[in-house]
Design a protein that fits this description.
Keywords: Membrane, Transferase, Transmembrane, Transmembrane helix. There is one protein chain. It is globular and about 55 Å long. The chain is mainly alpha-helical. The protein has one domain. The longest helix is centred in the middle third of the chain and has 28 residues. The chain contains eleven helices and no strands.
Length: about 200
């Protein structure tokens, strides 16, 4: 599904990528748009096919929600192309990476693989909180090198709006907080292996 999402974004960003990332396969002309459509279509179908074969509802819903948000993020249709709006774009990335993936994969393992009731444990809450910080950094950091093309094509990323340096140092600060809390959680853990690994 990630290949579908990233590939779809590249299909709708060919002109932007000619400025920002001219070596990408579509922007450079190595792949034709038709080849790009074929690739993303096959990978979307494979993702849903795998979800159907496995038969896990949490896994299927993770794929479906990721598909919907990834499509809404990139496609240039009315009410979509959410990547144009910095906050909405960040929420799409955060929603998939921090919330959907964490919760759905946890529920898949707990309820489908192990056949246990879903109990939202402290490690799950911690992993989701950590990935929330990490996903915000991904959402902000990925646009830092793309400022020129984004500005030309009207993509109002945080890097365009606030400047590359400010976004970079905000990301560094968020990572320091996330890893600082992770270290603190590990050091204060009652589990000896967790404490030892953290140290």
């Amino acid at each position: 599904m990630n290949i579908y999402i990233v590939g779809l974004n590249q299909l709708f960003d060919i002109e932007i990528d000619k400025v920002n990332k001219p070596t990408l396969p579509l922007a450079s002309g190595e792949y034709s748009p038709a080849m790009g459509v074929a690739i993303v279509s096959v990978f979307a179908a494979m993702s849903f096919g795998l979800g159907w074969v496995v038969g896990s509802p949490p896994l299927f819903w993770a794929l479906f929600i990721s598909f919907v948000l990834g499509t809404a993020y990139s496609v240039n249709l009315p009410y979509f192309r959410w990547k144009r709006f910095a906050v909405v774009a960040a929420l799409c990335i955060l929603g998939v990476r921090a919330v959907i993936v964490q919760l759905a994969f946890f529920l898949h393992i707990q309820t489908f693989v192990f056949r246990r009731p879903a109990v939202f444990s402290k490690p799950l809450i911690f992993a989701t909180a950590f990935m929330t910080f990490f996903s915000v950094v991904i959402a902000l950091f990925k646009d830092i090198p793309d400022i020129e093309g984004d500005r030309i094509f009207g993509i109002q990323s945080f890097s365009v709006r606030l400047g590359q340096s400010k976004v970079f140092w905000t990301c560094v600060g968020l990572l320091e907080v996330a890893y600082g809390v992770a270290i603190l959680m590990g050091v204060t853990s009652s589990s000896l292996w967790s404490k030892s690994l953290t140290l």
